């Protein structure tokens, strides 16, 4: 089947809206380099759109009615939003879901050490990464340090022009003959991804008499691990925490720098964390811009997808189900049976990125079943790997329903698989929501350089995916 180029379908009005949306998207990326920062940005946008915190509504004893908008945050790293529709919730919701965590380096709990005159932070990489891509690039540190008195120190160093940045060193080419003979997976080992954070020893000043001249002069005394001590002094003075506070810290090392337009034609966006914040942003924006709907509209944005959706903030936790129960209780519909009916009658777009065709590595793709930058919103009927292992596989009736919605709204879309049959594969949160019996299909945006420190997307695909999510939110009812 012939694939359209989405740019060719736009007029000047569409281009103006596209550029406005993509500017907002780049700002979202710049302010949301961690899942905690994403949640903060999402809450701000939601409250500006009239959403209220679910927990405050519960405490006030209010009920929820058609048109009411609420959100619930879990452990500052996952969030779910609801807009109450005309129909009872037991008849199902339209759900948009994505994840807001991205591959990165996490600082370990006992990380600070000195070696060879450098101060380092020991790290453990998070998610699927090519480790060699993370060396010799400017890095920033984002996160929180929670002290035993309950106070929280927020950290974001490396983004402003006046900030210092950090880096992982690599062996110079002149001495790299043995290194270059290693396989790519071994060129840089996981334990070698420690970031350099300083090189200046702590200087202890004291006065002493110069016996010959009889004058006082400054002297220097440098003890063991003087560079590490210098870093600890800076952390204490500038951020108010000590070495022991690393034990209760969540610090993430990410590429430093803002999202940028790419190409002479400015047709693309190059940025860190587009997997999967491009789907999170477009899902959120579609929900915030959607007015009254027949069915209750829900947007769930979660943590931990890159490591299997585990833990209290991952999709496998009961946070989503508990939030649905609380909302149904406030609408007067709650019962265990009604919660199950609501979930099983719901329709969902499980939004995650898909691999974009890369002509430089054409042999890795099935050209007939691959997403192209500029090809519009992507649907993956199934994901998984090698025999569809671990995949959600959407049924034909649901796909036909989505096709009908999109064709009526003139949404440009494409279908894809993640690489060749015996070569590719990947996971999303789709299979977890499908456990409730709801209709779920994977959808999203094509990404070039997926899981690299800098990923590329097409502005046209970002805008078209937003339009597709809005069409789904307003029209899905199967």
Quick summary of this structure?
By secondary structure, the protein is an alpha/beta fold. The protein has two domains: 6-102 and 272-475, 3-Layer(aba) Sandwich (Aminopeptidase); 105-255, Aminopeptidase i, Domain 2, CATH 2.30.250.
What topology does this entry show?
Elements: H1 12-31, H2 35-48, E1 52-53, H3 54-60, E2 69-74, E3 78-83, E4 93-99, E5 104-115, E6 118-126, E7 139-146, E8 152-157, H4 177-180, H5 184-187, E9 195-198, E10 204-209, E11 216-221, H6 226-239, E12 249-255, E13 260-262, E14 268-271, H7 274-289, E15 296-302, H8 319-330, H9 336-344, E16 347-351, E17 354-355, E18 377-380, H10 396-408, E19 413-415, H11 430-434, E20 439-444, E21 446-447, E22 455-458, H12 459-475
Parallel strand pairs: 1-2, 4-15, 4-16, 16-20, 17-21, 18-19
Antiparallel strand pairs: 2-3, 3-15, 5-6, 5-12, 6-9, 7-8, 7-12, 10-11, 13-14, 14-22, 18-20
Helix pairs in contact: 1-12, 7-12, 8-9
Number of strands: 22
Number of helices: 12
Shape: globular
Report the CATH topology name of the largest domain. Answer: Aminopeptidase
Mean pLDDT comes to 92
Distance between the first and last residues' Cα: 26 Å
Uncertain runs: 209-214
Helix percentage: 25-40%
Summarize the biggest pleated sheet.
Answer: 9 strands, mixed
Structural class: alpha/beta
The share of residues in extended strands comes to 15-25%
What is the CATH superfamily of the largest domain? Zn peptidases
In the CATH hierarchy, what is the class of the largest domain?
Answer: Alpha Beta
Cα-atom radius of gyration = 25 Å
């Amino acid at each position: 089947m012939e694939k359209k180029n989405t740019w060719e379908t736009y007029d000047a009005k569409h281009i103006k809206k596209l550029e406005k949306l993509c500017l907002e998207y780049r700002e979202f990326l710049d302010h949301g380099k961690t899942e905690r920062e994403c949640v903060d940005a999402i809450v701000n946008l939601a409250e500006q759109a009239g959403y209220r915190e679910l927990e405050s509504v519960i405490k006030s004893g209010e009920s929820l009615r058609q048109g009411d908008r609420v959100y619930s945050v879990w452990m500052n790293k996952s969030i779910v939003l609801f807009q109450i529709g005309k129909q009872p919730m037991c008849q199902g919701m339209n759900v948009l879901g994505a994840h807001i965590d991205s591959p990165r380096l996490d600082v370990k709990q006992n990380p600070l050490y000195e070696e060879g005159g450098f101060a380092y932070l020991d790290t453990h990489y998070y998610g699927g990464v090519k480790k060699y891509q993370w060396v010799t690039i400017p890095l920033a540190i984002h996160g929180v340090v929670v002290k035993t008195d309950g106070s929280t120190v927020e950290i974001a160093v490396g983004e402003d022009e006046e900030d210092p940045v950090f880096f992982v060193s690599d062996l110079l080419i002149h001495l790299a003959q043995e290194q270059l003979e290693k396989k790519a997976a071994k060129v840089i080992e996981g334990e070698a991804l420690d970031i350099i954070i300083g090189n200046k020893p702590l200087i202890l000043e004291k006065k002493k008499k110069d016996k010959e001249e009889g004058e006082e002069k400054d002297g220097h005394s440098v003890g063991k691990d003087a560079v590490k001590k210098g870093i600890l002094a800076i952390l204490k003075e500038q951020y108010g925490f000590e070495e022991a506070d690393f034990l209760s810290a969540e610090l993430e090392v990410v590429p430093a720098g803002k999202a940028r337009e790419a190409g002479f034609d400015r047709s693309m966006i190059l940025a860190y964390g587009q997997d999967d914040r491009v789907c999170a942003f477009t899902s959120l924006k579609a929900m915030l811009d959607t007015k009254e709907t027949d069915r209750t509209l829900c947007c769930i944005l979660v943590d931990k997808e890159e490591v299997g959706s585990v833990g209290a903030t991952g999709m496998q936790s009961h946070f989503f189900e508990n939030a649905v129960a609380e909302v149904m209780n406030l609408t007067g519909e709650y019962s265990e049976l009604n919660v199950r009916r609501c979930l099983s009658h719901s329709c969902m777009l499980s939004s995650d990125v898909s691999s974009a065709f890369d002509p430089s590595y054409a042999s890795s793709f099935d050209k007939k079943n691959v997403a192209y930058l500029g090809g519009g919103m992507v649907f993956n009927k199934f994901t998984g790997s090698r025999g569809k292992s671990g995949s959600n596989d959407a049924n034909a009736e649901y796909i036909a329903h989505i096709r009908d919605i999109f064709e009526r709204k003139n949404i440009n879309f494409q279908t894809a698989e993640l690489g060749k049959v015996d070569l590719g594969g990947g996971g999303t949160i789709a299979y977890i929501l499908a456990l409730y019996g709801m209709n779920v299909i994977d959808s999203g945006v094509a990404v070039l350089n997926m899981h690299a420190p800098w990923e590329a997307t097409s502005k046209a695909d970002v805008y078209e995916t937003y339009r597709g999510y809005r069409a789904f939110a307003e029209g899905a009812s199967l």
